[in-house]
Specification:
The chain has a seven-stranded mixed β-sheet, with helices on one face. It has 16 helices and 19 strands. The relative contact order is 0.08. By secondary structure, it is an alpha+beta fold. It folds into three domains: 1-57; 78-119, no CATH class; 128-373, Creatine Kinase, Chain A, domain 2 (2-Layer Sandwich), CATH 3.30.590. Helix 8 crosses helix 12 (308-326). The two termini are 39 Å apart.
C-alpha cells in the first residue's frame, strides 16, 4: 500500500525530496525509507519505528498500543482482551494453551495447578501425583514389554466418577496420575506387558465405558514405552529408529496425530539415531522417540483414543517395528528396500497377531489423510 500524507521537502533518512509521510517520531520519511526502516501499524496504518508486537493484530504503534491494548502477563505481548486467571491477566491464546476452567467455580487455573478455592473438593485419592513411579510389575512372558500412558479428558463434574471406573478395570495392571497438559482428567498408566498379553487380557471395555461416561481424547496423547532390553544390540536399536524416522509420514498417519511440539519428528534426531543407539539421549523429551528414560524408549507420536483398535494398533506398531528390525540384514535393506514402508507393511500382513495394525494400515492407505502424510 503506498504511503501518502503530508508533503515536506526532504526525507530525514535519504535527504531526497518527494511525497513524504510524517512518522510516529514526527520525522518525515519517503516511501522507500519507510519500507526499509519502519513498520506500519495494523490499526491506524501510520508508520512507526518503534512498533509493539500484539496478539492477533501484528505490529502496533505507540498511541494505538496505549489506547486499546494491554500486556498479557504470560507472553508479555499486547492483546485487546484478557482473562483473569490464578496467575494474572492473560490473552486468549495463552488461556487456551495453558489454562483450564475450574469445574467447581468460574475461575481459570494454570494447567498443573489446583484451584486455590476448590482444591480440597477436586483432590482424588485415586489420581496420584505426576511424579509417582512404582516398581514395574511385568505381565506376560517374553523379551519385549510395552507400557502405555493414555491421557484422558473427563467431564468437569465427573472426574472422580471416571477415575473410579478406570481404576475398577485396571486393578493392579495400572494406575492413574495427574498430568499438567490435561485441563480436567487424568493419565492412565499401565505396568509393562507383552504385546500378546495386552491384546488378550487388557480390559479394553474400560475405554468404551469411559467414552460412555463423557470422556474424550480430542487434544490428548498416547505414549508407548518399549523396554531397552528388548533390543539385541545397538545396531538393532539403530535399525528400528531408522525405520521409524524414514517413514515418519506413514507413522504419523497410523498415529492420527501430526508432528507437533509434544512429539516432534525432526531431521536432527534422525541424523543422530546412531548416537542415540549407542546411549546418547535427546536434548528434549518432546521428540517422536524420547530417549531420555534410562530403561525405555518412549514413542510419543500417537493421538490418544478411546477406540480399542486405535490403541491396539499403536501397541502393534511399537511391537512389530521392533520385531521386524530384529533380523533385518544389510541385504534386506539394500537389495529389498527393507527400510521402506511397503516392506514393513507386507511383513505385518503376514503376521496375524498384528491384525489391528494391519487393519489400520489398510484403512488409511485409501484416505486423503494418508496421501497428505506421505
Amino acid at each position: 500500500m503506498p504511503i501518502t500524507g503530508e508533503a515536506v521537502s526532504t526525507c530525514c533518512h535519504c535527504e531526497q525530496p518527494g511525497e513524504l509521510r510524517v512518522a510516529e517520531s514526527d520525522n518525515p520519511v519517503c516511501q522507500e525509507c519507510a519500507e526499509e526502516s519502519y513498520e506500519t501499524c495494523s490499526c491506524c496504518e501510520n508508520v512507526t519505528s518503534d512498533g509493539y508486537l500484539s496478539v492477533g493484530y501484528g505490529i502496533l504503534c505507540g498511541p494505538c498500543a496505549e489506547h486499546s491494548f494491554h500486556r498479557c502477563d504470560d507472553c508479555d505481548e499486547l492483546t485487546e482482551f484478557r482473562t483473569s486467571t490464578n496467575c494474572g491477566e492473560v490473552c486468549d491464546s495463552c488461556r487456551s494453551e495453558w489454562y483450564y476452567e475450574c469445574s467447581g467455580c468460574p475461575e481459570w487455573i494454570h494447567r498443573g495447578d489446583d484451584c486455590p478455592d476448590c482444591a480440597d473438593d477436586e483432590r482424588s485419592d485415586l489420581i496420584l501425583d505426576y511424579g509417582y513411579k512404582p516398581r514395574p510389575v511385568l505381565h506376560g512372558e517374553g523379551k519385549l514389554f510395552l507400557g502405555f500412558e493414555l491421557e484422558i479428558e473427563t467431564p468437569r463434574r465427573g472426574r472422580e466418577e471416571c477415575a473410579e471406573v478406570a481404576q475398577h478395570y485396571l486393578g493392579r495392571l495400572g494406575y492413574l496420575k495427574e498430568d499438567g497438559s490435561i485441563g480436567c482428567g487424568f493419565e492412565v498408566v499401565t505396568h509393562p506387558m507383552t504385546y500378546k498379553w495386552g491384546l488378550e487380557r487388557f480390559p479394553w471395555q474400560l475405554l468404551d465405558d469411559l467414552a460412555q461416561a463423557g470422556c474424550d481424547t480430542e487434544d490428548t496423547g498416547l505414549h508407548v514405552h518399549i523396554n531397552r532390553t528388548a533390543f539385541d544390540s545397538p545396531a538393532h536399536v539403530y535399525r528400528w529408529m531408522q525405520l521409524i524416522y524414514r517413514n515418519a509420514g506413514h507413522v504419523i498417519a497410523i498415529a492420527r496425530r501430526r508432528s507437533n511440539n509434544w512429539a516432534a519428528f525432526n531431521d536432527d534426531d534422525r541424523h543422530r539415531a546412531k548416537h542415540f543407539a549407542k546411549g546418547d539421549a535427546n536434548t528434549s523429551r518432546y521428540s517422536a522417540i524420547n530417549t531420555l528414560p534410562s530403561a525405555t524408549y518412549e514413542l510419543r507420536v500417537f493421538a490418544a483414543s478411546l477406540h480399542p483398535r486405535h490403541v491396539q494398533a499403536a501397541l502393534g506398531l511399537a511391537a512389530a517395528s521392533v520385531e521386524y528390525t530384529r533380523h533385518l540384514s544389510v541385504a534386506d535393506i539394500v537389495g529389498r528396500c527393507g527400510w521402506d514402508w511397503p516392506a514393513f507393511a507386507s511383513w505385518v500382513a503376514d503376521h496375524d497377531v498384528y491384525a489391528p495394525l494391519h487393519h489400520e494400515i489398510q484403512e488409511i492407505q485409501h484416505t486423503e489423510e494418508f496421501a497428505c502424510a506421505c
